[in-house]
Amino acid sequence: MKPDAPAASDWHQSLARAIRDPAELLRRLGLSESPELSLIPQQIPFPLLVPESFLARMRPGDRVDPLLLQVLPTSLELSDAEGFTSDPVNDLEFRKAPGLLQKYDGRALLIATGSCAVHCRYCFRRNYPYTAEPHRLDDWVPALEILRKDSSIREVLLSGGDPLMLTDQRLGDLIRHLEDIPHLRRLRIHSRLPIVLPDRVTPELLDILTGTRLNVVMVVHSNHAAELAGDCAAAIQRLTSGLSGMVLNQAVLLRGVNDSVEALCALSERLIELRVIPYYLHQLDRVSGTAHYEVSLETGRRLVAELRRRLPGYAVPRYVREVAGELHKTVID
Asked: What percent of the chain has a predicted confidence (pLDDT) above 70?
């Protein structure tokens, strides 16, 4: 039996109810501000945003809950660190037109929207100038023309922000324009919404993703097995049951969140249970304000070596980092 899907409008209501006040988040978890949990002002440019579903999977009273640590803005973000910059992967250098980035041969990326349903504190695009990117379908014309003229491009990635923040109408319209480009074969969608706002995975969304001639690959983003429970697990099951293409997961190696063999093994095991392929384990992109999340390369290599010992090969994600200017992700051996 397939998991029941929510009503089409529920995800908008869920987003409207998301928590935006750090003090309120702590209160809901039975926590208070302390030297270890020193909050930064709510009015910062990258404010807190946490859906109720994601909050429900946090452990009350736990100051080091791995889900809480990913979303709570603290004073650690105000510390400068050498080598951490506003654009660590040089996105803007590869911007070919409004909304269009192309770093690698054969594929291109569209910044579908600047909005997200959660503000992950380690986000490498937290400083990206989203206001300069398309907001209406007509704004995509220059990017679509570049894609149409370059027959070497076989795959388009929808990213952001989070592309599933688009309404069904806008997402469907954009996909229809892409499938009109004859040499495009695949559509890859990178989204954290199935994890943090699971009721976005509606029958209407699945109809859009299965109603295109393009081969759709969904890449979700989970960093810890505790995320993959309850309504999130049901949403993932709807994806894996409803899509004909692959469902992959990418995670970021984060200090205090998943920097242990036990945490990474549990994540991979849970993903496999849900029929999701552990795809990438990313070394942290060094964006300003995130140095406290960084795990050393030496530790990362040790962790992945232990994963290879404990898990079958298909359950071990590739440990990678993005090096600005390289022609592909760099595998860390």
From this structure: 95
Q: Are residues 278 and 315 in the same domain?
A: yes
Task: Grade residue 63 by pLDDT with cuts at 50, 70 and 90.
Answer: very high
Mean pLDDT over the full length of the chain: 93
Q: How many C-beta neighbours within 10 Å does residue 241 have?
A: 13
Strand partners, 107: 155
Instruction: Please state, in angstroms and rounded to a whole number, the distance separating the CA atoms of residues 316 and 298.
Output: 18
- Looking at the fold, whether 230 and 280 belong to one and the same domain comes out as yes
The verdict on 263 and 129 lying in the same domain is yes
Task: Yes or no: say if 48 and 72 are a contact pair by the CB < 8 Å rule.
Answer: yes
Distance (Å, whole) CA 116 – CA 177: 23
| Overall average pLDDT of the 186-190 stretch | 98
DSSP SS3 for 230: helix
Q: Please tell me whether residues 56 and 201 are part of one structural domain.
A: no
In a domain, 2, yes or no: no
Domain shared by 187 and 305, yes or no = yes
* Whether the Cβ atoms of residue 111 and residue 133 lie closer than 8 Å to each other: yes
Same domain, residue pair 188 and 138: yes
Structural domain harbouring 154: 91-331
Distance, CA of 263 to CA of 268 (rounded, Å): 9
**Same domain (yes/no): 153, 291:** yes
Q: How far apart are CA 176 and CA 203, in angstroms?
A: 18
Higher pLDDT residue, 328 or 244? 244
Q: Answer yes or no: is pLDDT of 7 > 80.
A: no
Which pLDDT band, with edges at 50, 70 and 90, does 4 fall under?
low
Same domain, 26 and 117: no
Q: How does pLDDT run across 131-163, given as a tens digit for each residue? A: 999 999 999 999 999 999 999 999 999 999 999
- Number of separate domains in the chain: 2
In 3D space, the residue among 279, 284, 227 whose CA is nearest the CA of residue 254 turns out to be 284
Q: DSSP secondary-structure letter at 284?
A: P
Q: Is residue 4 part of a domain?
A: no
Residue 253 lies in a domain: yes
What is the residue whose two structure tokens read 């503000």? 119
